[in-house]
Amino acid sequence: EADTALYQAKASGRNSVHFFESSMQVAVEARFDLEGELRHAVDREQLRLFLQPQVDAAGHIVGAEALLRWQHPSKGLISPAVFIPLAEETGLIVPVGQWVLNQACQILAGIAGRGQSLRISVNVSPRQFRQADFVASVREVLARTGVAPACLVLEITEGLVIEDLQHTIDKMHELKACGVRLSLDDFGTGYSSLTYLKRMPIDELKIDRSFVRDAPVNDNDAALVEVMLSVSRHFHLEVVAEGVETLDQLNFLKAHGCRCFQGYLLGRPMPAETFLSLMDDGSDQGRLSDLQTSGA
Ligand code: C2E
Ligand code: MG
Ligand code: MG
Ligand code: MG
Fold first, then answer.
1. DSSP code, position 189
2. Strand partners, 53
3. Residue 240 · residue 181 · CB < 8 Å
4. Rounded mean pLDDT of 70-80?
5. Average pLDDT over residues 89-99
6. What distances in angstroms separate CA 144 from CA 13, 65, 140, one per listed residue?
7. Which of 24, 55, 81, 149 is the most exposed place for a label (fewest CB within 10 A)?
8. Cα 200 to chain center, whole Å?
9. How far is the C-alpha of 38 from the C-alpha of 95, rounded, in Å?
10. What's the CA-to-centroid distance between 4 and ligand 1, angstroms?
11. Is 171 exposed, middle or buried (0-12, 13-18, 19+ CB in 10 A)?
12. Which atom of ligand 1 lies at the shortest distance from residue 245's CA?
């Protein structure tokens, strides 16, 4: 009896192991395909840089965040949430990040050429930041495109700061010496201490949308947002509130002294050409001043 039971357990175990292996293999192969394809995405010109407006309290576009998309030939538009982690793991983030930096500077050069001015924020992944030649590559792209360094904002995340604080700070100083601006993305979501702010040569904080979401209705989130705004005033940092979707959120943030906003309420990420035509025809200002009057 015992033998039979054991045999059955083994048999079904073997089956489930077999099933497990084959479904895992499918996942592994899918990942492998994507990785292989991502390797060629730059050469095959499948990457797209979307821009999402950042607006001031008067409704004027003052900047844009560059957000990457992958136009896959059969899978359609793939979100960076899917392929950035893969790119980071495999090291492909280095050429991909370089492409983004180059593309953003090309756009900035085009804008300057038309006598306009704007800031573009570029997300820099930890692995990209840690490359020994990262600062040199930033210098190179600025020199080649002739872009005013102050128009380029590099967004880094808290995670980077914790791993190797002194090294990160040294590198930030090198970047500041190039004239670019530094922004701390997703502020408040990581484990970094407020005391880091004192030591880091950053220009800007981005309040993560997880705090913005319920700030108008939740006392705790409201308090956290107020603290972030007051700390940034103290350290003379600019603040961008992320993920502003409603007028209540916008009005709450304005009432507490926030001056720069990014979110679906003000504009979704859009193809660069669409963004540039929006800047040209000024239709954004019509829409945003409508918001001003209907709000508050
Ligand atoms: P992030 O840097 O925090 O970018 C903001 C994300 O919030 C974007 O998602 C944006 O589309 C989304 N968002 C903006 N406004 C709203 C809103 O009102 N509501 C909601 N629900 N979401 C909003 P996206 O484009 O999917 O990018 C996700 C993340 O992928 C980014 O988060 C960033 O960490 C990373 N990423 C995107 N592009 C790049 C890139 O070129 N390089 C690197 N290293 N990372 C990138
Ligand atoms: Mg960002
Ligand atoms: Mg962010
Ligand atoms: Mg965020």
1. S
2. 64
3. no
4. 93
5. 95
6. 61, 21, 6
7. 81
8. 19
9. 11
10. 56
11. middle
12. 18
- What is the widest separation between alpha-carbon atoms in the chain? 87
The residue whose two tokens read 């309420």 is: 265
Mean pLDDT of 96-119: 96
Between helix 134-145 and helix 165-178 the angle, nearest 10°, is 10
What tokens were used for 147? Answer: 């872009």
- Give the residues surrounding ligand 1 with Cβ less than 6 Å away: 52, 66-68, 79-81, 84, 97, 100, 123, 125, 185-186, 209, 242-245, 262-264, 269
Ligand 3 centroid vs 19 CA: distance in angstroms?
39
The residue with tokens 């054991």 is 6
Residue-wise pLDDT tens digits, 128-138: 999 999 999 99
Contact 231, 202 (CB under 8 A): no
Identify the three-state secondary structure at position 296: coil
The confidence band for 7, taking pLDDT boundaries of 50, 70 and 90, is very low
**Residue 155 clears pLDDT 50, i.e. is over it:** yes
pTM summary value = 0.88
Q: What ipTM was predicted for this assembly? A: 0.98
The residues that bridge with 99 in the sheet, in sequence order, are none
Packed helices 272-281 and 93-113: angle between N→C axes, nearest 10 degrees: 20
265 Cβ contact partners less than 8 Å away, ≥ 6 residues apart: 244, 245, 246, 247, 249, 250, 291
